[in-house]
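Input/output pair, single chain:
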Amino acid sequence: MLNLLPHTSLPKQAACFRCWPTAPRYTCAVLNASPSLIAATPPHRIRAIDGALLETAPQTHTVHCLRDVQACRDNGYAFLEETPGGKYIYKYRLDAGGNTQVLAIIDASRSIDNFKCTATGTVDGETLVVSTMVEFDSGVPIVRRTPPAALWLHMLLMIWSWGTLLPWGAVLANRLRNPGSCKPGAWFRMHKKLQITGWILQLLGFLSAVLYCQYYAAHFTQPHTYIGMAVVAAGTLQPLNALFRPHPPTEGWANDKKPFGRVVWELLHKGVGWGAIALGIVNIALGLQLAAKQGYAYSMVGVGSAFFVLGALPALLFLLFGLVTSPQPGGAGCLRVWGELQGNYESASKTLPE
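Output:
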């Protein structure tokens, strides 16, 4: 009983095939779930990037991991053999023609997991020379995966932080600096509260991502993970950056001209902040797309998409509305939208520095 896997030095790939010899040819069917891309060495308790334990359950590996990880596509596939103890070991590599055929099948497959194939060919040493290969129809309905709690938490916390609170905090600070209907320093208080809350939520979202990758996937295997790490690092350092803000004197800057240190600080604080927000929004979209590709339930993807649109889109529209109707912060266009709310906002004990 053999399983198809890739032939690669990477310890996280494979394709699950069961083989029955019909000397001198072999007919192979994909075993259970999607093929697990695994190395040409024994899988040994290896966990794939989607969380599949390849030594004992390579059939649980998803089609997404088999199809969309470029290293797996480039390195080819091989057969695993199931031992009497229920574990899987390396058996045969596929030849170039076999790799080409299985990739064409995978690319055209609509399966989420439970991907099966039938192959015929001859054995040449450690290589299976494939003649034909087709996808096997098991008749089992496609069932999308149930997302674990850690993934739910990661998605919601990051959407509430980088997709809602942090963008709103930046937009309101930019557009409502000194509107006449606001109490002095109201913009600063609102900005501070929104950013601190978002900062805490994004840290909790990051911890949820670490737990998810540790127990259900693998660390740093997709662009989403690298972008996310950069965004969280930049966002986490923003409060430290704010501590070094050069405060203006009570009487204001001399000749109404900001000193060089203040200009540099503003460029750094605002540049890093806006850059992190832009990347954070892009990365949320990538994360939702990745969850769908990995076969997770559409209900989770739908809930996340709804929260994302309701949080980020109004902030973007408010920013654009303010820029169009009033190029300067605190313009009349913004006041028409937020004037009443800001007018009732908690008053500041003193005018806060910009």
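The two ends are 71 Å apart (CA to CA). Residues 1-45, 327-354 have pLDDT under 50 and may be disordered.
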